[in-house]
Amino acid sequence: EVLSLLDGMGADDSVMLMRMDGRATPLSRFQRDIPKLKALVAKISASDTPADLRSTLSTASDALRWRQNPVIIIVGDGAYSEEALSNVIWQPDATPPTPKDSASRFDNQRLSIVDLSGIDVRYKAIGEVSDNAGIIAFNVRRYISNRLNYEVYIEIQNFSKEKVQRKLVL
After folding, report:
1. pTM above the 0.85 mark?
2. Distance (Å, whole) CA 100 – CA 114
3. In this structure, which of 8, 19, 43, 102 has its CB flanked by the most CB atoms within 10 Å?
């Protein structure tokens, strides 16, 4: 999908590639060098960590804020949490705050919200939906007070919309 998007670039278009997994990772500066961008895309592999949509969109919107005709194209499986989706302003506010009421509007806003006003955001779906539950964090350490015993931290996440029951064996 990304290679196809790069092939469709216009002469005046510039692209910044960004990897979105557990954190936002810019892979390039804004550039027009299609072969170089394609080489970067070839190095990207799928990750089994949940995507940090809010952080990635925040980073991308900051990079695009003063550019003409900014576009964000998200290429992914769409497995974004409701919390992540609710922390984004997808449509511009019809009534921008005036200086006299901006303080009261600020009190009612969450600081973690990403404002994508003025940025064209598109989504290209890849992959398919499946019921998936898995280990997303695992750590073992010795107890400080008793060096013969260990404690285990394990975090499991259900990525499907339905409740699931799984058996975990350590």
Report:
1. no
2. 23
3. 19
